[in-house]
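Task 17 of the worksheet. Students: predict the tertiary structure of the chain below and write it out as structure tokens. Keep your answer in the requested format; marks are given for formatting as well as content.
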Amino acid sequence: MQSRTRNVVSSLGSGAGVRALVGGAWGFATTIDTSRPSLIRCSETAVRLARACTRFVKEDQRFTIPEGAKFASGRDEVTRDGEMDSIAGEDKIKFCLDLDKSARARSMLVKNVVIRFSESFSESAVVNSLGAHIEKSIGTVYALTNVMVKENDVLQSGSEVFSHIGCWNTADPLAVEQTAIAAVDQGLRLLKAKPCPPGAFTIVVDNKLGGVFVHEAMGHACEADSILAGQSILESKVGNRVGNEAVTIVDDGSRRDLFGYMPSDSEGIPSRKTILVKDGVLAGYLHDLETASRMEQQPTGNGRAEGFDCMPQVRMTNTYLEPRDWKPDEIVADTGRGIYCRNWQYGYVEPEKGNFMFKCKEAMMIENGQQTTSLKDVALSGQILSVLHDIDAIGNDFGSSGGMCGKGGQRVRVSDASPHFRIKNVLVGGMDG
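Model answer:
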């Protein structure tokens, strides 16, 4: 089958958002006209809206900027203006077509390949009356490969993602090709996979599934707006033991090697490493300016907005479980009977109740420390805090997966990361695909 391009889309936009804090209430206005008169009108509108809100805000609901909050200044260039266009669009399209051919050439059982390639470049500045003046220039590359394979009457799919901070001229084309091949190989393995037996198992999770678990199960539960809304099982638990003493979980937007990197958040607070769980003890929450004020804490650089026309919310950046001492193959070898779970397909978490369910993409039965039977349609469920206590081995490796996280109608760049780790007594069930 001949490879073809279905569509190519290019978009360009600009504008400004102005937020005013008056009497403990926000006013927010936006404009796509960035001339001086328009920005002044936009600022006046934001102030009027804030004053209007002030009349309806109770005294105990008002807040101020936390005293001692430090704001960012300077310029940070991950990508320079023009770099996104330094490689012709035709060459990028050709690369995707060649990628399609490589995936199809991997096996005669490949029936369809869909590649979604996107590249973006943004320039932004955050300025406020308290000293913030940070200019940011960031490019990203994201490539998703979905593959369908078929043998006899059995149809399976495989998918892998490539994400990169920086434009295409700084990405590794070989790494993108490897993700496409991995998607094919995943589908081929699933053709031979057996249904998963139900029951309680010891499971070993890989970097991708582990990273998603940390993001969904712990990261969202540590967002301070959820704490204030009474929608997190971690409310009032700072200083309490919530997991095994080997468990340390952090959020670090300052890591330039991960997809969620940003020099500052959308409120001008510098990105930093924030420890959420330290040696099994809940150490703190993620804050923007408002939640920090309400909870008498310092902002952590997690007030993020999708664009100039969106209000900042408390959001994660690069959230991960810190590595420990075990080699990944040692964890498997030390597991008498269990399931090795790789990557994730979908899932949900209820932060206010602490319940979760994930369906992983593929798995292998572990018997006497050896990976044996390939499994499919594996669903994992349990309770967040129980799982954190039941982690009994954490690897010394580290792997990440970049993507977009949705919340409150906005999507922002994040990275989920983790070493391999092992969890005792997880409820496992087979699911229809």
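Marker's comment: The helical segments are 36-54, 89-105, 173-191, 207-219, 224-228, 289-294, 328-333, 384-390. The chain has three domains: 16-62, 77-192, 199-430.
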